[in-house]
Design a protein that fits this description.
With about 425 residues, the chain is an alpha/beta fold. The chain is about 40% helix and about 15% strand. The chain has 15 helices and 14 strands. The structure holds uridine-5'-diphosphate-xylopyranose. Uridine-5'-diphosphate-xylopyranose binds near residues 266 and 268.
Length: about 425
């Protein structure tokens, strides 16, 4: 079985190394020549636990990386995992997808194979039927369902556990027409993920499932964040105990109830905006989704408000930001709340110093010399008048009185309650914990 994966981001590269480890002949393809060269040397373009080791193993076997799309002529399956970024209007921008499928269509035109094309990229409902399918049929001069298969196959992997999620997804969704290709796809996924539920549905529903999934996760986060704000007004109240207990109710579930500075990353914010946009376009007022998004934005303002309340005017105040990635165990800073906090602090002319175990380089690319980059956790505290913990990196748990003694003013805002159980000689404020009277 020969497989091509078009688009080597988190989803595509994770899939490439996992399928390669399972013994498939895998061609990883990307238009970015520099990226391909680096991956071919066994260097991942981003940090993802376990990925680079699998990549190196795969390259020793049958994993091939190329910017040349022509290899897809001879494969059995093509997974499209290109980005669908957000456009100015909030809707998704399908231009990368359109280019990719035009190229694929032209190449499969003269192929003797009957490829199955899986669209893994997140696209709003109707995109397959109205845009992707017609482009593929036009460029290939072949008929979907007869000459090639076309299946919506959204993914649910989380960065930082991308390999595990690719190997063991909670569900496999196959959207499309009930053709011989669908049967083949079902067999392929049953073999790949035994015991995983396979949901077979139409394109539109498959597309909607992805948005439903991410918007529900975002709703859970905004829900607990709003409760955390209420808890803060109740002296001694603890949002984590509330979350832990309601999470025991199987109707609620314990995951995604960690209060914090709001959700970020390359998916939840973008998918929320796209669903809000889509909902309005079909005449449904997305009142709940709007509230979820607004609650998320408010969370950022709350942090800035708290810093200002304690430090007064922020001009020339030394503030340390711990964690700039959008969550732990990744170097990804896309739509990271921490980056937004830094931008707001710079507007107020504060002196910002940052430390992140993995995302220093990516952060440098955004702020250059506008902020200071600490060499270590300890270095980040020198002269600081306020430390803001934005991300729960394990390393930040090491903060103790000896390290804190380096600070000029001992004030910590802990957005993730990393230090909640420590006795520290510091003015401490944690999101979700009611300040004692
Ligand atoms: C998300 C979805 O979880 C995944 O299913 C989808 O395929 C892609 O988008 P990811 O972007 O990797 O995955 O991040 P996720 O782990 O969902 O976290 C998103 C944001 O929410 C992060 O900023 C994180 O810190 C925040 N978050 C998450 C919370 O604040 N509290 C929580 O309880 C969970």
């Amino acid at each position: 079985m020969k497989v091509a994966i078009v688009g080597l981001g988190f989803v595509g590269l994770s899939l490439a190394v996992v399928l390669s480890a399972k013994g498939y002949d895998v061609f990883g393809i990307d238009v970015d020549v520099k990226k391909c060269n680096s991956i071919r040397k066994g260097i991942s373009p981003f940090f993802e636990p376990g990925l680079e080791k699998m990549l190196k193993n795969g390259l020793k076997k049958k994993l091939k990386i190329s910017d040349d799309f022509s290899v897809i002529k001879n494969v059995d399956m093509i997974f499209v995992t290109v980005g669908t970024p957000q456009s100015k209007s909030g809707a998704i921008d399908l231009s990368i997808m359109k280019n990719a499928i035009k190229t694929i269509g032209k190449i499969i035109r003269d192929s003797k194979k009957n490829q199955i094309i899986f669209i893994k990229s997140t696209v709003t409902p109707g995109s397959m039927e109205k845009i992707i399918l017609p482009i593929l049929e036009n460029t290939s001069k072949r008929k979907a369902g007869k000459d090639f298969g076309l299946i919506s196959n959204p993914e649910f992997l989380q960065e930082s556990s991308a390999i595990k999620d690719t190997e063991y997804p909670h569900a496999v969704v196959l959207g499309g027409y009930q053709t011989k290709f669908m049967n083949k796809a079902k067999k392929f996924f049953t073999k790949l993920h035994s015991n995983t539920p396979i949901i077979i549905t139409n394109h539109q529903t498959a597309e909607m499932i992805k948005y439903a999934n991410n918007s529900f996760l975002a709703t859970k986060i905004s829900f607990i964040n709003q409760l955390s704000n209420i808890c803060q007004k109740i002296p001694g109240a603890n949002v984590d105990d509330v979350a832990k207990t309601i999470g025991l109710d199987p109707r609620i579930g314990k995951l995604f109830l960690n209060a914090g500075p709001g959700y970020g990353g390359s998916c939840l914010p973008k998918d929320m905006r796209a669903l809000i946009n889509f909902s309005s376009s079909v005449g449904i007022e997305p009142s709940l989704l709007n509230a979820v998004e607004k609650t998320n934005e408010k969370q950022l303002e709350n942090i800035i408000f708290k810093i200002s309340k304690t430090l007064g005017k922020l001009k020339n105040k030394h503030i340390t930001i711990l964690g700039t990635s959008f969550k732990p165990d990744t170097d990804d800073i896309r739509d990271s709340i921490s980056i937004e906090v830094i931008k707001k602090l710079l507007k107020k002319e504060a002196k910002v110093k940052i430390f992140d175990p993995k995302a220093m380089e990516n952060t440098k690319n955004v702020f250059n010399d506008k902020i200071e980059y600490a060499k270590s956790l300890s270095d980040s505290l020198q002269k600081s008048e306020c430390v803001v913990i934005m991300v729960h990196w394990k390393e930040f748990e090491k903060l103790n009185n000896s390290l804190i003694s380096k600070m000029k003013k001992k004030f910590i805002i802990d957005c993730r309650r990393v230090l909640i159980n420590k006795e520290l000689d510091v003015k401490y404020y944690a999101i979700g914990i009611g300040e004692k009277l």
